[in-house]
Amino acid sequence: MAKIEDRTLASNTGGNDDIGEEKRLSMYRTQVVIREAEQRAFDLFLQNLVKGTSHLSIGQEAVAAGFATAMRPGDLSFCTYRGHAHTLARGVPIAKVLGELMQRDIGLMRGKGGSMHLTSVDHGVMGSYAIVGAHLPIACGAAWRAQYKGRKDVSVCFFGDGTTNIGAFHEALNFAAVWKLPVVFVCENNLYMEYTPIGDVTAVPHPAADRAASYGLPRTVIDGNDADVVYRTAMSAYDKARAGGGPSLIECLTYRHSGHSRADPAKYRPEGELEKWKGRDPIRLYRERLKQFGIGEDVIVRIETDVKRRVDEATEQCKAAPPPPADILTTDVYADGGFAWRN
């Protein structure tokens, strides 16, 4: 298992301190929503109700929950194709996400975008991007807009460890550092870039953090499976950005329990590795954390039961929803909402 070192922020179980019971319960609920909704998405695929591929974040829920809980309204999220978790964490209804995966008119983009293009401007979710690294410069542009207009919103850009070997990663980091943009770059290092261990193709042990010094940024590696650690780190980075201190680069060590996509059985992983990481399941860890703070089992069970009910209701709502009408096929494709200008 990867070692977490340097600027890792340890959890404090001595009291509700800077986080508080309300936020902790919210972060737990968010993690459970992500887990239950994504597991349902997989089940629906097995029922042939979800078409195409999708990329699940089961095992990585603490990253999305911690960063989203620390955000303010107006802050912006930029995601990769593994974007269900971050979309749900910003408050997008479950039915909107599952409906999009099921190609139903009830979906977030009326079934036209699918798993890898989830977007909800109303919730600050500025898109999931299927092209690796494409969204990092876009996040810089959004942050530059905030800086230019004197706004206090922060752009938060999530990406995988493989993105750190893409040119756009280095270009965006350099641009953000030079202009001191209010943007936070978050590497979700789950140890594998699709099917290849990131360590086999990268010159440094920590693909994001070990390159931070090149752009004058501190080396920050944290436990991405502990929502409290993630939340505190996010708050610090957001405060710095809002105060004009420029960007942050944070590497979150985590692990996906499934393969890269649903077509990947993940047989390339060493024997026993998955079991070790499941021992640090973020939801199991946080469930115990709540108990350490005196939150009763009945409260925890009520959250879990309510989330499962909501996922069941959303599933039935999506099953009953019609597919998108044919007349929207060519809308929202070009700037004018149609294709006439190209003819």
Written description of the protein model:
By secondary structure, this protein is α/β, with parallel strands linked by helices. It has a single domain (29-317), classed as Thiamin diphosphate (ThDP)-binding fold, Pyr/PP domains (Rossmann fold), CATH 3.40.50. The chain is 40% helix and 10% strand. It has ten helices and eight strands. A six-stranded parallel beta sheet has the order 2-1-3-4-8-7, sandwiched between helices. It is globular, with a radius of gyration of 20 Å. It starts with 19 loop residues before the first helix and ends in a 23-residue tail after the last helix.
List the helices and strands and how they pair.
Blueprint: H1 20-46, H2 61-70, E1 76-80, H3 84-89, H4 94-101, E2 125-129, H5 135-149, E3 155-160, H6 167-179, E4 183-189, E5 192-193, E6 196-197, E7 221-223, H7 227-242, E8 248-253, H8 273-278, H9 282-292, H10 297-320
Parallel strand pairs: 1-2, 1-3, 3-4, 4-8, 7-8
Antiparallel strand pairs: 5-6
Helix pairs in contact: 1-2, 1-9, 1-10, 2-7, 4-10, 5-6
Count helical runs.
10
* CATH structural class: Alpha Beta
Q: Low-confidence segments, ≥5 residues, pLDDT <50?
A: 4-16
Please tally the β strands and state the result: 8
Molecular shape: globular
Largest sheet: 6 strands, parallel
Distance, first to last CA: 56 Å
Biggest sheet, strands in spatial order? Answer: 2-1-3-4-8-7
Structural Rg:
20 Å
CATH superfamily: Thiamin diphosphate (ThDP)-binding fold, Pyr/PP domains
Total number of distinct structural domains: 1
CATH architecture label: 3-Layer(aba) Sandwich
Order of helices and strands: HHEHHEHEHEEEEHEHHH
Instruction: Tell me the CATH topology.
Output: Rossmann fold
